[in-house]
Design a protein that fits this description.
With 186 residues, the protein is of the alpha+beta class. The protein is built from 8 helices and 5 strands, in the order αββββαβαααααα. The protein has a 3-stranded antiparallel β-sheet, with helices on one face. A two-stranded antiparallel sheet has the order 2-3. The longest helix is centred in the middle third of the chain and has 29 residues. The N and C termini lie close together (5 Å).
Length: 186
């Protein structure tokens, strides 16, 4: 069975992320009609725009994007992850995509954000690895309860870990690597 690598999964979901609508507040009036995009807004008006367009308008001082601060969301997620002990807490499916996009726009706090990102990745990675190692003994695939707690990148990682652990166990307990691959359908 073919599984997409984490980078490919992230690129595909990033496209969806930048196409999602976000709320903006216009700092000045604008009337635009180009490339099949029509935009007519007054100062202080709020509208939903695709994230990619909102970022361009924001960079040009035309709008304020009104979305949750990913720096705060990162700190909350890190705190929840530490408090949860061995349990894996839920994060949004696009958590890392949004966080990486947020960090790329930061100048002042980038180093602090990267340290927190490294901390949460390390905590969650340990939990995901532990869970994927235990899974084969209890069930044949990821449970919906765990799957809904993972980001898209973590789901791809989990599937890759699960396949590797299954192949290793198959080889060690049942015979050759080829037999383990055939058992998995690969």
């Amino acid at each position: 069975m073919y599984r997409m690598d984490i980078a490919t999964v992230a690129r595909i979901h990033t496209l969806g992320y930048i196409l999602e609508p976000v709320k903006v507040r216009f700092k000045k009036s604008i009337k635009m009609d180009m490339l099949n995009i029509t935009l007519d807004a007054s100062e202080d008006e709020s509208k939903m725009l695709p994230r990619w367009l909102a970022r361009i308008l924001q960079a040009n001082g035309i709008v304020d994007v009104q979305e949750q601060d990913m720096g705060i969301e990162l700190l909350r997620a890190l705190s929840r992850e530490k408090i949860a002990g061995e349990q894996l807490t839920a994060i949004r499916h696009d958590f890392y995509i949004g966080l990486k996009e947020f960090i790329s726009r930061q100048v002042a706090n980038r180093d602090r954000l990267m340290v927190s990102l490294q901390d949460i990745v390390t905590l969650r990675l340990k939990k995901i690895m532990d869970y994927s190692g235990k899974l084969r003994a209890t069930t044949s695939s990821i449970t919906p309860e765990i799957e809904q707690r993972l980001s898209v990148e973590e789901k791809a990682l989990f599937r890759a870990l699960y396949d590797a652990v299954s192949m290793f166990r198959g080889y060690m307990l049942d015979g050759s690597v080829e037999e383990a691959k055939l058992e998995k359908g690969g």
